Amino acid sequence: MEVTKNLGGGSLIGVPIFYRNGENYGTLCGLDLNPYRYTEDHIDLFKAMANLLGNVLELERANREIETLSVPIVPISDEVAILPIVGDVNEVRTERIMEIALSESANKSLDYLIFDLSGLINIHANSAMNLLKIGQSLKLIGVQMIVTGIRPDLALKAVQSHTDFDEIVVQSNLKQALNWIGYKLVKE
């Protein structure tokens, strides 16, 4: 091959890496400056490694999809959306929430983003501080963050971590948040 010629000889083995759907990710290569004759065992080993890498890449892709689904932004109107936070919130998920909240708020030209924490199981110590950072970041792009559904144990964690929620509007529930914005729920 040209690459081995440019190195003055040697040997090269290459095996494609595929996703499950057949899409090619790239190639797993082995290169040596010395000429080497690869056996079937070497080729089988490279194929197994490429298959393993394909599986790891597939898991990474699936994990990204799950992360996206774990941060669903639900539009209420053109200017208002709800972000229900369900489950456990750690540092990694908080970062993902921030990324999606900022990008989706800007893309949808939102004025208000309601974070509903009523489905939150556990929040890690720094995540309460990061919620405040998300609120500050949203404010910089012109979006008002409103937090609803804070349970007593969550309130205690926020107070213990000395998190200052003065810049964020906090309402007990979704109905109160919508009323604060100026929406009235009317039963017909």
Give the C-alpha Rg.
25 Å
Q: What is the overall number of helices?
A: 6
Mean pLDDT: 84
User: What separation lies between the terminal Cα atoms?
Assistant: 75 Å
Beta strand count? 7
From the spread of the alpha carbons, the general shape counts as: elongated
Low-confidence stretches: none
User: Which structural class matches the secondary elements?
Assistant: alpha/beta
- Architecture (CATH level 2) name of the largest domain: 2-Layer Sandwich
Helix content: 40-55%
> What is the CATH homologous superfamily assignment of the largest domain?
STAS domain
SSE series:
HEEHEEHEHEHEH
Oligomer: single chain
**Total of domains:** 2
CATH topology of the largest domain: Transcription Regulator spoIIAA
CATH class of the largest domain: Alpha Beta
Q: Major sheet: order of its strands?
A: 3-4-5-6-7
Report what the structure shows.
The protein is an alpha/beta fold and 188 residues long. The protein has two domains: 2-68, no CATH class; 70-181, STAS domain (Transcription Regulator spoIIAA). Helix content is 45%, strand content 26%. It has helices spanning 2-6, 40-69, 91-107, 125-140, 152-160, 174-181; strands spanning 11-18, 24-32, 74-75, 80-89, 112-123, 144-148, 169-170. A five-stranded mixed sheet has the order 3-4-5-6-7, with helices on both faces. Helix 3 (91-107) runs parallel beside helix 4 (125-140). It is elongated.
